[in-house]
Specification:
By secondary structure, this protein is an alpha/beta fold. The chain contains 15 helices and 13 strands. The strands form 3 sheets. It has a 7-stranded mixed beta sheet with strand order 3-9-8-7-6-4-5, sandwiched between helices. A 3-stranded mixed beta sheet has the order 1-2-11. Strands 10-13-12 form a 3-stranded antiparallel beta sheet, covered by helices on one side. The structure holds pyridoxal-5'-phosphate. The site of pyridoxal-5'-phosphate has 13 residues, from helix 5.
């Protein structure tokens, strides 16, 4: 008997023992405030569908129309088979929405990072990277071969310290930070980081996956939030969160966008998202440009829920966005909390290592504009009951 795969069985058993094994629930309905999960109707506190656009009728209609006009697939890589006019339109619309000159789209936010970072830095270069940056940034950095210098989370002073420490040791440099940190819901001090990038003449890149559609005027993102228009070289984003669809985007300096069309490997070697996805993305931009109502409701809901959770005695960490971590400590407790919530018809997933550091397991509640006040109250009551039962609150 061969035993070449035994190690995987052992690793999997270890994950289960440590409460770190991913058990993926099956959703049998569209995204929304309520879902059918494993056959049961539950309140949705999990998704990144901040504005409820994942099942928005006008976006669904736009996707259907694109199916009729352009078919189901893009056929091949854009640089080889030509790019559909629809994809270019989305890029123009995203650039305009973001208030920048240029944008390029990718299959996902993940591939946007894998494309961008290795196109800009290599072996002789250095990346100054926030220690809590998203996995796709970390992977993009590793792929680039550049030296990775981490600075303390959201700490502009520490960023400046590591830049000074490394002066003269590299050819090119780039500073990369998440805009909104998805596990804690805090915001990068981009104004201060920009000051440093500009003082040391270093390329600045922000990944605003959780800020787009959430921060800034009408959801224009972190650059708008800080009034840094035209100052941030690269804004990475995703269409899979607030925009409710799928796809990645890099917006910003036109020279960089042009370079990515030549050297962004996921752009050159992987097909684009489908016409239906692109049309839905354009429809999302339409909706956001026409009204701030959804973004306003998202924030109203988030403020209400977080204030009530604090009153109940929960530790919701440092979040200043609709992402609401409920800090529980050890992973098994977080998993049990999530299971008990599910019994109460509330779907809120626990997060443990390696998604968050060891000992910092949590339930992450994702508030959406689709939640009604009654939905939020129902969720709060469930949290209160489970929290008391498990001794998390009194
Ligand atoms: C979610 C996320 C991504 C990945 O986006 P996808 O479009 O889902 O691939 C990238 N970066 C950050 C910071 C994210 O939060």
């Amino acid at each position: 008997m061969s035993n070449r795969l035994d190690w995987i069985q052992q690793e999997l058993a270890g994950l289960k023992e440590a409460g770190l094994y991913n058990r993926i629930r099956t959703i049998g309905s569209p995204q929304g405030a309520w879902l059918i999960v494993d056959g049961k109707r539950v309140l949705n506190f999990c998704s990144n569908n901040y504005l409820g656009l994942a099942n928005e009728p006008r976006m669904v209609a736009a996707a259907k129309a694109a199916l009729d006009q352009f078919g189901v697939g893009p056929g091949a890589v854009r640089t080889i088979a030509g790019t559909m006019s629809l994809h270019l339109e989305l890029e123009r619309r995203m650039a305009a929405f973001k208030g920048v000159e240029s944008a390029i789209t990718f299959q996902s936010g993940f591939t946007a990072n894998l494309a961008t970072i290795p196109a800009l830095v290599g072996k002789e270069d250095v990346v100054f990277s926030d220690e809590l940056n998203h996995a796709s940034i970390i992977d993009g950095c590793r792929l680039s071969g550049a030296r990775i210098v981490r600075y303390a989370h959201a700490d502009a002073l520490d960023l400046e310290r590591v830049i000074k420490e490394n002066e003269g040791t590299y050819n090119r440099a780039i500073i990369i930070t998440d805009g909104v940190f998805s596990m804690d819901g805090d915001i990068a001090p981009l104004d201060k980081i920009y000051e440093i990038a500009s003082a040391y003449d270093i390329i600045l890149m922000v990944d605003d996956a959780h800020g787009e559609g959430v921060l800034g005027k009408g959801g224009r993102g972190i650059v708008d939030h800080f009034g840094l228009h035209g100052k941030v070289d690269i804004e990475v984003g995703t269409l899979s969160k607030a925009f409710g669809v799928v796809g990645g985007v890099v917006a910003g300096n036109p020279v960089i966008v042009e370079w990515l069309r030549q050297r962004g490997r996921p752009f050159l070697f992987s097909s684009a998202v489908t016409p239906a996805d692109v049309a839905a993305g354009i429809a999302a931009v339409d909706l956001l440009e026409n009204s701030t109502e959804l973004v306003d409701r998202l924030w109203e809901n988030a403020r209400y829920f977080k204030a009530e959770m604090k009153t109940l005695g929960f530790d919701t960490g440092f979040s200043t966005t609709p992402i609401t971590p409920v800090m529980l400590g050890e992973a098994p407790l977080a998993q049990q909390f999530s299971r008990e919530l599910f019994e109460e018809n509330v779907f809120a997933m626990s997060l443990g290592f390696p998604t968050v550091p060891r000992g910092k397991a949590r339930i992450r509640v994702m508030i959406s504009a689709t939640h009604s006040r009654e939905d939020l109250d129902q969720g709060l009551e469930a949290f209160a009951r489970v929290g008391r039962k498990l001794g998390v609150i009194h």
